[in-house]
Write a structure and sequence with these properties.
Immunoglobulin-like, alpha+beta, TIM Barrel, 758 residues, single chain, globular, six-stranded parallel β-sheet, five-stranded antiparallel β-sheet, 4 domains
């Protein structure tokens, strides 16, 4: 599935009509037969867990691994041809692939463009090759001999030192300028080869070096010599049937990522190498891509024919993708180092060396070697999670690939209280973490019938592919919220969908804020976190999952929260030993003078009881610093007899002119289920339209947490959602993705708050 096949048909074609016949074999049957043929030892896992309702032995076929089922998706093992079929005819030569890699010499401060042409020539041909970046006044002509057959040719275009090169930057750090690059081939002044592509200039380094006051090594990315915090999520296939993933689907999802202040996505190794448009859009939008190779959660065979097709796959994909500035790192697989190290598959100790040998053969001796030959511009990691350089020192499989002192970490725990930041690992880089939720009713309704609309129905069980997932969501929610108890079955179901989204949003918010405030400090030898990619961005079908965007593009509450917790400037509040801390976090390039402003509210009153202001602090660009610190007891004592149960905190950052910087955040002093004075807010909503678009004018009688606006099947998104109301009036804008009207929106609009579900 992951490679192109080319066949010479020159001697087979005849005048007139020719028929190309393709025979297809069941991928399930093929995988089973390959497994039977591998009789010397097993290559686990044999089958997915029963809860996934999937097919077996997917690791024996080079195909989308999640197509045989995953813990968030169905088992639809597709078969067929999924990319174009074409007949190429040429008289002299054919350009199969053009790649260009901008490389920067730090000592001479000069750029050069490494150009690679994959050419198929009918016969040996001498010609002039012209390379040109006219906007940078850089041009070169080379006399070259193209030999008969299919071969790769390398050229170097040195960029004129007097030309100022504009660099590509990730979203939030600068623009994404590009240059037009042309390649032309002439023979006796006759043009017979011409190709044009975009070239973006940027550098990337993965820094793994000793850290002051900490064992281990750092793990962070430097783009254009600037250290960046990677903020984002993990990307899975956008549909079980790839031909349905069109430009509208990709644009919507990737724009939604940028709109939530993300600057990075990890293309996960159990899906597909995405189509060209995906990477073109990431280039344009400034989304950094962590690109896995397509191996996930399994051991893999290493027979010669398997290795050979993998080698061809890797060569083709790296040649296709390496010109994209958005891709900043290659990674050999998803979780296979961890699976070996922590013995997911119960491999006897005596047999472990066999599997380590296979692991090194596939990912190190083949994939890594090819990538380093094909692409000198990017780092390569053998796995994720990994201890990086430390894993290499330990023979590529570390004793503990989850060690927070090294590399990246995947972390999931559904049993501990997600509001307690102490349960999270203070890692260098968090590349996977998350919690499940259900999608909204409007997403489920088209694929269900009324008898399905219960949390205990066969439908909700069938769509849940993660063991005990439905129970885990309610158990986590019940730690802080009263569970829905309506006697009307449909309302109870939709309220439960809502409460799972509240739980997920609050859990991932707490964890992400912990990672962002850990960027500048080392505590007990851990910290300097410079990446937070939660699991997962998107969905492959209408079902419960870890996603923040539902199948079809609708934003869950989590995605609205991400807009805030990934903001460039952000206040984060938390408690340690009954002391309230507020950190000011800045991803900006420049320093800011900031103060924290804390408003204390009673759950029963919309008027602020008191306001506290910190001293002004100089917050460096690219840092996190404590800006407010006060014991909770003294804070409450000075605020009109507030207690933990009766009051809550809202806070924001201001500059020295009193102008708010970043979003407003909040801190609950108790679980909402224990809050005293919280009442039904009697919110009224009026939809209006002006030149800027649609808006919803809200009026509330009291404090209301997790206010959720929903317009059913009308596609679009609100400016904010799932928010805390601590004022009588609030205006929310709605960006419609389809033609609609005030009347239609008014009919479809529903407003849900925490007190409406019990």
């Amino acid at each position: 599935m992951f490679r192109r096949y080319d066949f010479s048909v020159r001697k087979l074609l005849k005048d007139g009509e020719n028929v190309l016949e393709v025979s297809l074999l069941s991928p399930v049957f093929y995988s089973s037969e390959r497994r039977k043929a591998h009789s010397s030892y097993s290559v686990p896992p044999e089958c997915p867990p029963d809860v996934q309702k999937g097919e077996c032995h997917v690791n024996f076929i080079r195909k989308e691994q999640s197509s045989f089922s995953w813990d968030w998706g169905p088992s639809f093992p597709t078969m067929g041809i999924w990319k174009d079929v074409r007949l190429d005819a040429f008289d002299v030569l054919h350009l199969i692939q053009l790649s260009s890699l901008p490389l920067y010499n730090y000592s001479s401060t000069q750029w050069r463009l490494q150009v690679e042409l994959l050419v198929d020539a009918v016969q040996t041909t001498s010609c002039q090759v012209e390379l040109s970046l006219s906007e940078l006044d850089s041009k070169q002509t080379i006399q070259n001999l193209f030999l008969q057959g299919r071969l790769k040719y390398n050229f170097t275009l040195h960029i004129n030192k007097s030309s100022k090169v504009k660099r590509w930057w990730p979203s939030g750090h600068g623009g994404q300028p590009f240059y037009h690059f042309t390649v032309k081939g002439f023979q006796d002044k006759v043009l017979f080869l011409s190709s044009e592509s975009k070239v973006y200039f940027r550098t990337v380094e993965l820094i793994q070096e000793p850290v002051m006051e900490s064992p281990g090594l750092s793990f962070y990315f430097r783009i254009n010599e600037k250290s960046l915090f990677l903020k984002g999520s993990n990307w899975i296939p956008a549909d079980s049937f790839q031909d349905r993933v069109n430009s509208a689907v990709l644009r919507n999802l990737l724009q939604s990522a940028v709109d939530a202040n993300m600057n990075a996505l990890r293309v996960w190794g159990g899906g597909v190498y995405e189509q060209d448009l995906f990477y073109n859009l990431c280039d344009e939008l400034g989304i950094m891509v962590w690109q896995d190779f397509m191996f996930a959660c399994a051991m893999y065979p290493t027979e010669d024919d398997f290795i050979q097709t993998v080698r061809e796959e890797v060569i083709q994909q790296v040649q296709r993708l390496k010109s994209h500035p958005s891709i900043i790192v290659w990674s050999g697989n998803n979780e296979n180092e961890a699976a070996l190290a922590t013995n997911w598959f119960n491999i006897p100790a005596s047999q472990k060396p066999t599997y380590i040998k296979d692991y090194v053969k596939l990912y190190v001796n083949n994939i890594r070697k090819i990538v380093q030959e094909e692409d000198q511009s990017r780092p390569f990691l053998v796995s994720s999670p990994t201890n990086g350089a430390e894993s290499e020192q330990e023979g590529w499989v570390a004793a503990n690939p989850y060690d927070p002192h090294f590399g990246d970490v995947h972390f999931y725990n559904y049993n501990m209280d997600c509001w307690d930041w102490r349960t999270f690992p203070r890692t260098r880089f968090a590349s996977e973490y998350g919690f499940q939720s259900w999608p909204s009713f409007s997403t489920l309704e088209p694929v269900s019938i009324p008898e399905d609309w219960s949390y205990n129905s066969n439908f909700t069980s069938h769509r849940q592919h993660h063991e005990s997932g439905n129970q885990q969501m309610l158990q986590q929610a019940a730690l802080h919220f009263n569970l829905p108890n309506s006697t009307v079955p449909l309302k109870r179901f939709t309220d439960t969908l809502y409460i799972t989204q509240v739980m997920q949003a609050q859990c991932v918010k707490t964890q992400t804020e912990f990672y962002r405030r850990s960027r500048s400090e080392i505590i007990a030898g851990k910290g300097h976190t410079l990446g937070a990619l939660y699991w997962q961005l998107n969905d492959i079908w209408q079902a419960p999952s870890w996603s923040s965007i539902e199948f079809g593009g609708k934003w869950k509450m989590l995605h609205y929260f991400a807009q805030d917790f990934f903001a460039s400037v952000l206040p984060v509040g938390f408690e340690d030993d009954d002391t309230l801390f507020i950190y000011a976090i800045s991803d900006l390039n420049h320093d800011l003078k900031l103060r924290a402003v804390v408003n204390v509210y009673s759950w029963s009153d919309l008027d602020s009881i008191c306001t506290l202001t910190s001293d002004q602090l100089l917050v460096s660009g690219g840092s996190a610093a404590a800006i407010f610190k006060q014991p909770v007891t003294s804070l409450l004592a000075g605020c009109g007899g507030c207690t933990r149960l009766t009051c809550l905190l809202s806070f924001h950052l201001e500059n020295n002119h009193g102008i708010q910087q970043g979003p407003t955040n909040h801190h609950f002093l108790c679980s909402p289920k224990d809050a005293q004075g919280l009442q039904r807010p009697n919110i009224t909503a009026k939809v209006q339209e002006d030149k800027s678009g649609f808006m919803v004018i809200l009026h509330s009688d009291s404090v209301a947490p997790f206010v959720w606006l929903d317009v059913g099947h009308i596609q679009g998104r609100f400016s904010v959602n799932g928010f805390l109301i601590v004022s009588r009036n609030k205006t929310v804008h709605f960006d419609a993705w389809q033609p609609t009207s005030v009347a239609e929106l008014s009919r479809s609009l529903s407003v849900t708050t925490l007190m409406d579900v019990y």
